[in-house]
UniProtKB/TrEMBL annotation:
<dbReference type="InterPro" id="IPR012347">
    <property type="entry name" value="Ferritin-like"/>
</dbReference>
<protein>
    <recommendedName>
        <fullName>Coat F domain-containing protein</fullName>
    </recommendedName>
</protein>
């Protein structure tokens, strides 16, 4: 049986706000990745994308652990 912890509305809003910011940052990095041919810049952008995906996953897990549905991804 999974035990849910209580999350305040303010905490929920902060997590959702951060989730949206991470999604936007990752989306922008993906766009820029398609615009450059420089391997060094491509590598940095891919690191940003990977880190953003980890953050998105962690934030979604926090919401899920609190008994809230995962946010839809754009």
């Amino acid at each position: 049986m999974m035990h849910h912890w209580r999350m305040t509305e303010m905490e929920k809003l902060h997590i959702i706000e951060q989730l949206r910011a991470e999604e936007l940052c990752t989306k922008k990095a993906r766009f820029y990745l398609t615009q450059t041919r420089d391997p060094a810049i491509q590598g940095l952008l891919q690191q940003c994308i990977d880190k953003g995906q980890r953050h998105i996953s962690t934030l979604n897990n926090l919401l899920q652990d609190a008994g809230l549905p995962q946010m839809a991804r754009h």
